[in-house]
Specification:
It is a single chain. The chain is 59% helix and 0% strand. The chain is an all-alpha fold and 122 residues long. The longest helix is centred in the middle third of the chain and has 29 residues. About 10% of the residues have low confidence.
Length: 122
């Protein structure tokens, strides 16, 4: 079983919501088909429901893959703050002017910002 890392929870929630919305689209299409009576307005609503189903399935698969896959994309700002805090906590007191304390990239002494991660150097 793969673990869900901080920030990927949002993708898992989006996946669950996509499944719920897709289920509602299926239910909506069935109800509209049963009650349309063959009129053109009812058929349009059925088509909208049917077109929405593959869109929600694709979206659910994307979010599920993002939640459990390697190299997943995360837009959770809390994750960045926690990771940076832990990293700063570990590297606190270690000053090596030729390497970035955040990502470990070799930097020149006169650099104000890291060329790799873009963070301000101490």
């Amino acid at each position: 079983m793969k673990s869900i890392m901080l920030g990927r929870v949002l993708s898992l929630i989006a996946c669950i919501m996509d499944i719920i919305i897709g289920s509602c689209c299926i239910l909506f299409s069935i109800i509209m088909f049963c009650f349309s009576g063959g009129d053109s307005v009812g058929i349009v609503f059925v088509l909208v429901g049917v077109i929405s189903i593959p869109i929600t399935v694709i979206s659910a698969l994307y979010h599920f893959r993002n939640a459990i896959g390697k190299g997943s994309f995360s837009i959770d700002p809390l994750e960045d703050r926690l990771l940076n805090y832990k990293h700063e906590d570990i590297t606190k007191g270690i000053s090596n002017s030729s390497f970035c304390p955040y990502c470990g990239t070799k930097v020149m002494d006169n650099f104000e910002y890291c060329s790799r991660c873009g963070k301000k150097l101490p």
